């Protein structure tokens, strides 16, 4: 992106709601780089709206058959009636087929179907109308079919889409209008045709702005909802959603997924002796230290109080032990009295521990964390460590 176009884009972003900052502006251009949680929530919204619009069209599309039968020639009205019934059945099938818990790719597929059905109907109806010379009210009703691409383009505005996605879904509707002009090449009124096309481009641009505005507002809300305001880590609710997504991917691809429960040792004494401000500062420092050691795909979640959950995708239990060893060696911060801040940690990995779902994985890591606390704190407990009948001490952790 050139310097001028970048400045124009940032100016445009500044006019959008949701207070999207410059680092997040690229999320409005393309879905590439969106976090899985954002993709999941956006997919749910898109699929729900696809199903809503499909249901509405499935009901309304065949109702116009009565008008066609009353106004248009009988042969034409019956042909259009068949096309309407087929389109209505397709809309009904789309409504029934798609469910809210779909991936973003499936959500795009639903939108493709939603826009493909009326586009095909537009081309078919256009071909049928070309074979009849209509006059008076029949001509007015026939002309109404030409407004379908306008409806399609305006309908884009209800979806939270990036600029790339908006253009991708607008182009087929514009192409359908161009195809209609090509089919009547010898008789079309070209000034009127290009005026109509320009109006469609204008509607597509306004719809794209509406899509981006929705997405900007959604990004702002998700950022506020998914982050713990004190530590900047993911909140518990968003952490559960991320873990569910990661667990689904891990089980589908048979890849490892490790979780670690981290509980700060004797945290209550910090609040009791030095006040809650000192406790908050200890939580902030620990979160910063952990995040500094994370890989790009790892996720830190503030589970509640002084408990944190660390999600480690594509990580075996032994790799997690080494990573946590490096973390403990680097230090988790200091207590107000200058002593090192320590934590009790429980580790679980879904393949090695043979769990059936992400909730069992959480429970296992949680129980091991409590075992570490009951065994003297400042320790790490995992499956292999339990089998060997020993706990990971700080010295062993540093050696790892």
TrEMBL record:
Q: What is its EC number?
A: 2.7.7.65
Q: Which GO terms describe its molecular function?
A: diguanylate cyclase activity
Thylakoid as a keyword? no
Q: Which reaction does it catalyse?
A: 2 GTP = 3',3'-c-di-GMP + 2 diphosphate
Tell me where in this chain the GGDEF domain is found: 255-385
Alphabetically list the UniProt keywords: Membrane, Nucleotidyltransferase, Transferase, Transmembrane, Transmembrane helix
Transmembrane listed as a keyword: yes
Q: Which NCBIfam families match?
A: GGDEF
PANTHER family membership: DIGUANYLATE CYCLASE DGCM-RELATED, REGULATORY COMPONENTS OF SENSORY TRANSDUCTION SYSTEM
Q: What is this protein called?
A: diguanylate cyclase
Native species of this protein?
Answer: Vogesella oryzagri
